[in-house]
Amino acid sequence: MAKGDLLGEFELYVMLALARLGADAYGIAIRREIAERTGRDAAIGAVYATLARLEAKGFVRHALSAPQPVQGGRARKCFDLTAAGERALAQSTSMLSRMMRGWRPRRAE
Amino acid sequence: MARAVPLLARWLLGAAAGAADRASLLADLEEEAAAIAWDRGVAAARRWSTRQAIRSIAPLVAARAAAGLSISGSTTMQIWRGLRSDLRLARRRLWQAPGFTAICVATLALGIGGNTAVFTLIDRVVLQPLPVPRPAELYRLGDTDDCCVNGGLPGSFSLFSYDLYRHLLATVPEFTQLAAFQANVRTVSLGYPDPDAPVETLESAFVSGNYFQMLELAPAAGRLLQTADDAPDAPAVAVLSHHAWTERFSGRPDIVGKTVTLNGIAATVIGVAPRGFYGETLRPNPAEIWIPLSNEPRLQPAARLLEAKGSHWLYLIGRLRPGVDPSTLQPRLTAAVQQWALATLTLSDDDRRQIPQQHVTIVPAGTGVSSMRDAVLPSLRLLQLLAGTVLIIACANLANLLLVRGVARRTETAVRVALGAPRARIAAQFFVESLALSVAGGAAGMLVAFLGARAILTLTFRGATTIPIDASPSPRVLGFAIAASLLTGAMFGMAPAWFGSRSDPIDAMRAGGRTSSDRGSRVRRFLLALQVAMSLVLIACAGLLGRSLVNLQSQDFGFRIEGRYVAAFAPSLATIPADQLPGVYASIQERLRAVEGVRNVAFSLYSPMSGDNWSSVITVDGHDPAERLIASWNRVSPRYFETTGTPLIRGRAIDERDRPGTPLVAVVNQSFARKFFGDTDPIGRRMGFALARGGGNRVFEIVGIVGDAKYQDARAAAYATFFLPFLQEPRPPDGVAPKLGRSHYPQALEIEAAAAPASFAADLRSELRGIDRRIAIRRVLTMQEQVAGHFNTDRLIARLATAFGAVALLLACLGLYGLTAHTVARRTREIGIRMAVGASRSKVLATVLRSALAQLSLGVAIGLPAAIVAGRLLESVLFGVSGHDPAVLAGAVAALAAAATAAALLPARRAASIDPVSALRTE
């Protein structure tokens, strides 16, 4: 496995958010998911930049949704994991969990 | 209600994001901001979205940079892309109309080039620092140019005696070096120990031993002067300028260490100054050889200055230690000068009262001593003003041309507007075209500037053998040309961009581009009137300056110019022992008169209009000895007044009778007689030089009166002058033979000749050499050339003003032609109809001409008062013509009217030859 296929930390968050959100994964929703779960107030631009990078790597793809059923509703740019993305996510998370096995954070004394 | 996302946030995010993401990114932000606004209020939403936008910039830009995507799609990128395509389009369009483009570029080249040429001169003469390390550290003591030798108490000290220089050296340790140098350059005779080698002359300057150390210059060959070279008993040495080394010694390295003679004194050439260094003062014919001060008494024994404590002849420049405030030195130097004056000089009571006024001013000297700068700066400013006017005219002209072009392109513009092109883009495109033109014009202008600056330099330094500056453009000049080009483009591009983009699609697209409304036509008329007015101002100025030059040159100088020649003696003449002089002087006249073509020969201390003058305090019969009377004086040989063509009014001229031992005589000019004797007869009255303490012996008897002649200032009246014979000197009371001062050595030779053969100068030289090897002359000039040399600046200004005036006239005609031709083209149908219903061709011609002349009259009406104001401002440089000279103004109007009529006649005749049938058919 090439080094470029490893996921960075924020990329991992974005991919995990994608995997959880399923069909509803679009920019601001991903940001919200990360913010709510980790407490990290990511910039929307960072999410988009990461998505673009992942798409360039072939891990995610996007499609425009049907317009929202409200007046002036817009088409959202929805993202989805590709098969390669699924594999990369599995690989990265399993590496992480193997590394973490048996490790406890030290207590502050 | 305020929007949940502030505009700034939208703009920031939009600019940072790529085109692909921009819409959804913004929509996402809006969505979340709306939710926040619902929960926590609009203000919170706005704060949040602004923070989001700002924090998003870095990751977005970084991602795009990393992805290797260009920043395409962003606003700046769009503008840049648009600009590039506009430039491409402009280039294509301009190529398509080569005639139009050529006219525009030529107009701009003249306008920008003229300005840049004048600026080149300003740069070289005024702004350029000396070619030495850290010129900003150099400061000069004194701020006036009181060249060349002064006595007494000047008030503000700029010249210093050697003794005073030594005194000041000890006063100001803040100078790492304080150097002294001669205020002017003097000619020195350079010879070789071999007695048969020819004697050359060089421009020389005496400098203190630390002169080059102060400037921190490195030698091009050998070594430069050191303090030890300036010791009283040091062997005589000299340093050559690089220019003299290459020109006179063809750059031979073996010149270093060679022994030469300077005014007959053996000296060793120890080195060559660096290339491009012409001394501390910008002047025509700069110093070619630098000699330590200690050699001065030996080299000019007749005019020794070094030991004369009260003779001020040196300028002082020092290098200040970093961090020292020069203004703190001023009071100390002033105190030192006053203290020195009290301790050293012999002072009268009146002098003592003046001691508190004696002071020294310290000025920056990074650009050297500024005598020439101060002299030519007003002229350069005037020229820059004239050149600037031409540029404005050129701008008006180009704006008009482009406006007309914009009208012609109206249909095309209309189509673009109809298809949805934003007006700003269309305006930008017009503007870019203007800028492209101005940049091309600027590039061509650089060439014009280089040639122009070289021509201007040659005119400025006419008659000089060495010109210490060149015309190659410095970075400052390049910057000026670029700025001028862009500014010009912006100036003339504005109106066409505005009106070009204003075309109404409906108006323009109907009826094949024919329309009743012609937007911008009033602007065009205004621009043309402005052009005509400014051209009139320039032509009038050129007329006034030309007239003034003619008046200056053709005035009655009080001596004859035709058939008169002058030459300057080399200073080696002054090394001839006094007892040989009577014989030598007699044979100069005798032998030269035998040269073919020569009618009369004379010599004198100064020749007419040589620019030199010697004034002294005198005492005259009929005046109180305590009265301070000042007059100019000169020593002349027999037949001098005949030879120069100065008329003898009464009495007798100086002739062969006036020898050493015969009664002392003087001849005075009319101004002298009027000034000191009023209505009484001066002949037989007596006069003499005043003594330092007042009074004096009136030893000279006035034997004749001659007409007034000008010697120094062509604009001023002739000075009151008295003439003395050579070699006559009052016998001192102790009865020993009088010592001859430097006034007894003639500096000028005057010849009257019927027609000078080609070998004239050579014949004169060989005759003089036959008398004594030490008698040599420099260039033989016609009196015409000597006189003309005084008007270099006036001639330069007059010529350039004429050139600028001609360009302005040409541009005004082009403008009028263009406007008239455009009007005729637009009115083709109307004229056709008029002719079809019976208007005669002459009537059509008259109609078109009348409208062109109305345009002209408007311009003249604005220009005439402006020309009178400009003339008033010029009055200080004018000679013999007033600033509102009616003849000049009338001539300017007539020239403009004639040229304009010719320019309008062409399109008018075309209008008159319109065939009504075909005109009506153009639908």
Write a concise keyword list for the protein shown above:
heterodimer, A: 109 residues, mainly alpha, 4 helices, 2 strands, 9% strand, B: 923 residues, alpha+beta, six-stranded mixed barrel, 22 strands
Structure description:
The complex is a heterodimer of chains A (109) and B (923). Helices cover 52% and strands 9% of the residues of chain A. The mean pLDDT of chain A is 82. Chain A has a two-stranded antiparallel ribbon with strand order 1-2. Chain A is mostly helical and 109 residues long. Chain A is built from 4 helices and 2 strands, in the order H-H-H-E-E-H. In chain A, helix 1 (9-21) packs across helix 2 (27-38). With 923 residues, chain B is an alpha+beta fold. Helices cover 50% and strands 13% of the residues of chain B. Chain B has 27 helices and 22 strands. A 6-stranded mixed barrel of chain B has the order 3-4-9-6-8-7. Chain B has a 6-stranded mixed barrel with strand order 14-15-20-17-19-18. In chain B, strands 2-10-1-11 form a 4-stranded antiparallel sheet. In chain B, helix 1 (7-16) runs parallel beside helix 3, helix 5 packs across helix 14 (423-460) and helix 17 crosses helix 26. The longest helix of chain B has 38 residues, at 371-408. Chain B is globular, with a radius of gyration of 37 Å. The two termini of chain B are 57 Å apart. Classes of the chains: A mainly alpha (109), B alpha+beta (923). The A-B interface holds A 26-28, 31-32, 43-46, 48-50, 52-53, 56, 74, 76-77 and B 13, 16-18, 21, 24-25, 27-29, 31-32, 52-53, 55-60, 62-64, 66-67.
